[in-house]
Amino acid sequence: MEKFKCMICGHVYDPAKGEPKQGLKAGIDFADLPADWVCPVCGAAKEKFKGVV
Question: Is position 39 annotated in a ligand binding site?
Fold first, then answer.
């Protein structure tokens, strides 16, 4: 699964880890996150994330 990086603060969403502080378990692909999901660090919208290698 591809990781996604916040273009505002640099936080990386890693599907292998999920976002435990937001109650998101490991294994959830970025595309499957809710449309209203926001960056747990800076609150940026999902659209502010870009895929990283």
Answer: yes
